[in-house]
Amino acid sequence: MEYRAFALKYRPQSFEEVVGQEHVVLALKKAITTGRFHHAYLFCGPRGVGKTSLARVLAKALNCSRGPTISPCRECLSCQEITKGTSLDVIEIDGASNRGIEDIKSLRENVKLAPSYSRYKIYIIDEVHQITPDGFNALLKTLEEPPSHVKFIFATTHPHKIPPTILSRCQKFQFHLLPLEKIVEKLKKIVEKENIESDEEILYAIAKASAGSIRDAESLLDQVVPLLLEKKISWDITSILGIIEEDLVNRMVKFIVEKNLKQALEFIDKLCCEGKDLGNFLDSLIEHLKDLILSRISPKAFQELVTISPQTKEFLSKQADLISAEEVLKIIDLLIEAKDWSRKLNSLRIPLELALIKFCYSSGRTYPDDFRLNNLNSNFNPKRALEKDEDDNLISQEIKDSFEEALLEEKKEFALEKDVEEELKSDTFSISGEDLREKWPQVIEEIKKKKVTLASYLSEAKIFIEGNLLNIGFLKKHIFHKEVLEKETNRRLLEKILEKVLSYPLKVKFVMLEEKSNSKEEKEASSASFSKSSDSEFINQLLDTFEGEIDTFHE
Q1: How many Å apart are CA 551 and CA 547, to the nearest integer?
Q2: Of the residues 156, 174, 192, which one is the last residue of a structural domain?
Q3: Domain check: are 206 and 287 in the same one?
């Protein structure tokens, strides 16, 4: 016997067999029982949800020898020919290949002819949105006032591409993606009829991979049946389909909630060794974490989700009680950032592992508010803060020691800054622009020993002195340099090195400059960091802005 694909073999043949579109089925059945069936129907919705199949069932209901009836007999000549696709009175047309005005003119001529032996001549036009504007215009009059023996059933995945004049002459029915449970239920019936043994987890994985399309689910099941017959283990099947089982994602969610970094990293290594697609895994993980937040915010909406199994819903509901929404949002942001970095690094494993490390060790890598400089006070106790992590056997003693040293160093720098401020208040320092110009390369060289990038940025700067305030200016094209140097740690580092080189404590201020010179000579003058030439328009602007004097400007 010739093999038939599941999507064809188990195609719905009656209203009762249509899965997941009860709202459409009920409306059509009521129309038939009351004798109020329209001359044109438009079935629209995603692919693989039953639009064309239901169109055939409706054609059977209208042309059955016992009809019109909501229960076609499937035995009469009309029903059998519609099932086989050989009926002369039910014409299926592909809108993509019969889209021109000549094709529609031919259709207009044929609709005038009476049906061969059936009650109605029914035209089923799939992907009707592919018809050209001229073709729609030619169809318009026929669609508005068709012969009494003609019915139109249109199907499309893009109803917005259909002209409003056509839409207004049809009864429109919107088809939905199928719930996960409905697809699994259909797959169970198929494996039972085929005498195939399959784990429920595999069926749920197939249903989820189909993304709400019953046809895609049947095709995927068709693909894995040979492996099911050979009793292959489940991960072989899911690997072939590129499917990530819910159980794997659930395990990672559990590790994240528990902040069990060791198990999480070992789990990622296992996925890589098994050849799992980390991209699919990461997408599924982000979606799971989103559902976890939804379970806290709106339990009702969470229970109505059709993309996860009941077992996963129960699991996520329990995990939601063990973690705050803020922490979930934080790990989601880190995972999305990892996905972005993967495109630059051409690797997903490294950014993914780093995201998990950042999340689990965030308290050790980012100072809490109590540790920040502006909050340091007599109650500051880094030892007490570190004691919070003493029970975490994953944090090495070296990390604790380096963390404590960093905190103490920051506190010392804070005290130094306070001393400098007090000294600036009590004493008056002065340094000439000439001295600053001579020693500025040495300042940059000292900065370079600490941070090469900062030295590079400062080499693009324009400098001038106002009392004890050093103004460092940048052109608009170097705004990034200014923003980096303005960071508190970088500013303090620069002031510390200035004091070391100049033997005077200076405060630093970063400003934006505007370059208005266009000629070659003017550009050369402006690049010579604050020349003494009073003819330079650039220098005059600086003098007006900072109320300086011409003899105070030096490079």
Answers
A1: 12
A2: 174
A3: no
